[in-house]
Design a protein that fits this description.
CATH architecture: Up-down Bundle
CATH superfamily: MFS general substrate transporter like domains
Distance between the termini: 39 Å
Number of domains: 1
Strand content: under 5%
Number of strands: 0
Order of helices and strands: HHHHHHHHHHHHHHHHHH
Structural class: mainly alpha
Helix content: over 70%
Radius of gyration: 20 Å
CATH topology: Growth Hormone, Chain: A
CATH class: Mainly Alpha
């Protein structure tokens, strides 16, 4: 494990900063929407644009990692995220749209790049735990955004955006001393075959285990990003929370996601295995989404935070177990390509999920209906995961 911790630490930091860049606009959505004269529900469109760009970028990540190295690709991602956030600070809707594209292009390659590094340096029996620790960078970015962005609004929302951009730039320099050692396997002469973006998707569709994992990640991602995108707005508009209190509640849910990712990775490696662990998490997400829909302003704050913590632990905690299983199921030496292909489907769920959540909530006049729809999606995921487990149990009984 000694050789694992160094790449784990740097990939964790990079993941946290690009995640913070992505979540910053949703956290400040009520203030931003009021200043620009638009509805807060439009934040779902912003997130959808980010992940549409991320989906395309993830498909090209395998070729870029092979040529430039995982650290260099990750540094490029940080630079793009910083540029996108800084551009959004101009305050016009076209600038924010282009900024969303840049953030997505920066965010998309980071996870395939880190999977490439960790697949090379992690013992197989600790894959779920190590990948889960690395993926805590996503909710950790949410913790940073929820805890720091509302106080940073004293600088104005433009100043807060520029501060987040500066943090991403700083991380580029932090990663640079590790670049030579960790990118030693790069092939500078390898051609960039970016035109064949369908290759990762074909790999996923050709392998039934990868196909199942990708399909379930589509539904899990709807739940995760609906929670992350709309929680502050839901608490502010429906439960009458102040923006700082709502941001702290988001931080609680994201912090629980950090704990959940490590805990579920350990439980998966030690006892349940990835498929059973994901089935348990699907059931937990469905229940928590229904409980969140039932929250009301008269409930004690601790009760609300307990529900949101459990929601975050499950809706955010699934990712590391999923990515580790993708790396296990990928053909040898092709973890970054398989990860890029499955993440394209994951990101498709994110592209469709928050805008659909916002549209449904807007049409019905209730964010609660959106959370009920999230619960229904995860019930479908649970059914899909249980089916092969039941077939496997039936086969064992027939052999016995």
């Amino acid at each position: 494990m000694t050789n694992t911790w160094r790449p784990l630490a740097v990939t964790l930091a990079i993941q946290a900063l690009v995640a913070m860049a992505l979540i910053t606009v949703p956290v400040m959505a009520p203030v931003l929407a009021q200043d620009l004269g638009i509805s807060s529900a439009y934040v779902g469109i912003y997130v959808g644009v980010v992940y549409a760009a991320a989906m395309l970028a993830s498909l090209s990540a395998g070729a870029m990692v092979a040529r430039f190295g995982a650290i260099r690709v990750s540094q490029g991602g940080l630079l793009l995220c910083a540029s996108g956030i800084a551009l959004s600070a101009l305050g016009s809707l076209p600038a924010m749209a282009i900024g969303a594209v840049l953030v997505g292009l920066g965010y998309g390659p980071v996870t395939p790049a880190s999977s490439h590094l960790l697949a090379r340096t992690t013992p197989p029996d600790r894959m779920s735990l190590v990948f889960s620790i690395k993926q805590t960078g996503v909710p950790l970015g949410g913790v940073l955004a929820g805890a720091l962005v509302p106080p940073l609004l004293v600088l104005g929302w433009r100043g807060a955006l520029l501060a987040v951009a500066a943090a991403n730039i700083a991380c580029i320099f932090v990663a640079q001393p590790l670049r030579s050692a960790l990118d030693a396997d790069r092939e500078p002469q390898r051609p960039l075959v970016l035109g064949n973006l369908a290759q990762p998707i074909r790999m996923v569709l050709a392998h039934p285990p990868l196909r199942l994992l990708a399909g379930c990640s589509f539904l899990f991602s709807i739940a995760q990003l609906s929670l992350t995108t709309y929680l502050v707005t839901y608490l502010h508009d429906v439960l009458a929370y102040g923006l700082v209190a709502a941001g702290l509640a988001l931080s609680v849910s994201q912090a629980a996601g950090v704990v959940g990712r490590v805990l579920w990775g350990y439980v998966s490696d030690r006892w349940l295995g990835a498929r059973r662990m994901l089935a348990v998490l699907a059931a937990m997400v469905a229940v928590c989404a229904l409980l969140t829909a039932a929250l009301h302003a008269t409930l004690p704050g601790l009760v609300v935070l307990a529900v949101l913590a459990l929601f975050g632990a499950s809706a955010i905690g699934w990712n590391g177990v999923y990515l580790a299983e993708v790396a296990r199921e990928a053909p040898a030496g092709q973890a970054s390509i398989a990860t890029g292909g499955t993440l394209a489907i994951t990101f498709l769920g994110v592209v469709m999920g928050p805008p659909a959540f916002g549209a449904l909530s807007g049409a019905t006049g209730s964010y609660r209906i959106g959370f009920v729809a999230v619960a229904a999606a995860l019930v479908l995921c649970l059914i899909a995961l249980l089916r092969p487990l039941r077939k496997g149990a039936a086969s064992l009984r027939s052999i016995g």
